[in-house]
Amino acid sequence: MQERSGVITFKGTPFTLLGPEIKVGDPAPDFRLVDNAMKPVTLADLSGKILIVSCVPSLDTPTCDTETRRFNVLAANLPGNIEVLTVSADLPFAQKRWCGAAGIDKVRTLSDYREHGFAAAYGVLVKELMLLSRSIFVIDGAGVVRYIQHVAEVTTEPDYDAVLAAVAAII
Q: Would you call 55 a catalytic residue per the annotation?
C-alpha cells in the first residue's frame, strides 16, 4: 500500500497516510461502510446525491465532536440532495450512542472499523494509529470528487467556509 509522509501532523508529530492521493476530478473510490444499525452503505447507495464526507479520527475526541456538531448545524440549511457523512473507525454502537447524546440528526455517521477499506481507498488511513485523518471530500451526484481538504494538523478543525463554497460551486 502506498505511504505518504508530510501530509499531516498530530500535536506537531508527523504521521504517515496509507493509500493513494485522491485528486479533484477523480472518480470517487467505491466504499463499503457500516451504519449505526450495522447495515452496509456503499457509494452506489448514495448515487445522485452531493456528498460532504467528513473523515474524523474518533467522535469521542474534542475536535471531532466539535466538527460533527458544526456540520450538523450546517446540514440543516443545505438542500435535500446534499448529504453530510461523518466517517470514522469508531464502532457503530459508539457512533449511535454519541449521536444520541449530542443530538445529531442531520449528519449520518458511518463506520470503517471492519477493514479500513474506505480509509485505504481514500488515502486517509493514519499508519501509526489505524484511524482516519481529518479530511473532507465533496463528491458530486455523478460520483466525481470535486473538493478535498486534508487538515494538516489533526487537532484543528477544517475550513468549513471552503467546504460550503465547494458545495455551492456544484449546485
A: no
**CB of 66 closer than 8 Å to CB of 55:** no
Please, what is the end-to-end C-alpha distance for the chain in angstroms? 35
Q: Are 88 and 112 in contact (CB under 8 A)?
A: yes
Delimit the domains of the chain by residue range. Answer: 3-170
Band of pLDDT at residue 45, cut at 50, 70 and 90: very high
Model confidence at 161, in pLDDT bands (50, 70, 90)?
very high
The residues facing 34 across adjacent strands are 40, 111
CATH fold of 3-170: Glutaredoxin (3.40.30)
**Exactly one of 64, 126, 151, 154 is catalytic; which is it?**
64
Contact assessment for residue 28 and residue 144, using Cβ atoms and an 8 Å cutoff = yes
